[in-house]
Amino acid sequence: MNHLNTAPSRRRFLAVAAGLGATAAVGTSGVAAAAPGPRRLRVATFNIHHGAGPADVLNLERVARVIQDLRVDVVGLQEVDRFWKRSGFVDQPAWLAERLGMHHAFGANLDVDPEEPGRPRRQYGTAVLSRGPIRSWTNTHLPLVPGHEQRGLLQATLEVRGSCLDFAVTHLQHDDNKERERQAARIVELLGSSPERTVLVGDLNATPETPEIGILTGALDDVWPRVGSGDGFTYDALNPHARIDFHLASRDLRPLTAQVVTADPEASDHLPVVSDLEMPVRRHRR
């Protein structure tokens, strides 16, 4: 388990602290009660193709603008680089977090030698960007067929308006359905067969009717069929023909909206998906 110290500016910290202070009150029983009513949570998934669009032109600022316009509490990213020559040796999750004023966690599924002497090791994987603090995170490698790309599950515990949420992001193997089935089964083991206050997002490289998606939806609800409109196609960005980018939520969360965002289809080779969910309020004894 990893713990982060990626606090934003003092102004943002004070604003968050003030907001949290306004959401709870302690009664005479010693129970800290959250503000009345459930909390609304806005989440997204986005495969950023290491910051390059369909024409393979690098523009991480363009990706940042897309994420900024989503106005999310948390986003899960796939195909994220750290210190690769193709992406200008930038630490992409750290750069995006700084640019957007968010906290971040990164899960390295590839970790290889640097391309130039004196450079840091190259890493590639998934990331979480969160408006609220990331209390802890862990990245677990998923089942792998020899010779294929290592995949992982990045899990983060977030603070969202005074409540905790378990948020996970993954990117499954693109060309082996049996491997994806094993990866999906391992994800259910990690998240639990009946999780609570949990959201899983990612590029699953599979369409809704496949067995691997069925394994995941045995434990989590696919948000799109419940509140999305239309086919939900996310790939490829310029000619969308498949729904392979998913939001899956535990059954105590109520989906409100879901949308494929098409405002800038040349920011990546995938389109982002954004959804609004309603979280139940918990009461915690001191």
TrEMBL record:
UniProt keyword annotation of ATP-binding present: no
PROSITE patterns: TAT (PS51318)
Segments traversing the membrane: none
Gene Ontology cellular component list: membrane
Endonuclease/exonuclease/phosphatase domain: residues covered: 44-270
GO biological process: GPI anchor biosynthetic process
Signal peptide: 1-34
InterPro entries: Endo/exonu/phosph_ase_sf (IPR036691), Endo/exonuclease/phosphatase (IPR005135), GPI-anchor_lipid_remodeler (IPR051916), TAT_signal (IPR006311)
Keyword Mitochondrion found: no
UniProt keyword terms in alphabetical order: Endonuclease, Exonuclease, Hydrolase, Nuclease, Signal
Domain of life of the native organism: Bacteria
Single annotated GO MF: endonuclease activity
Pfam families (alphabetical): Exo_endo_phos
Name recorded for this polypeptide: Metal-dependent hydrolase, endonuclease/exonuclease/phosphatase family
Organism: Streptomyces melanosporofaciens
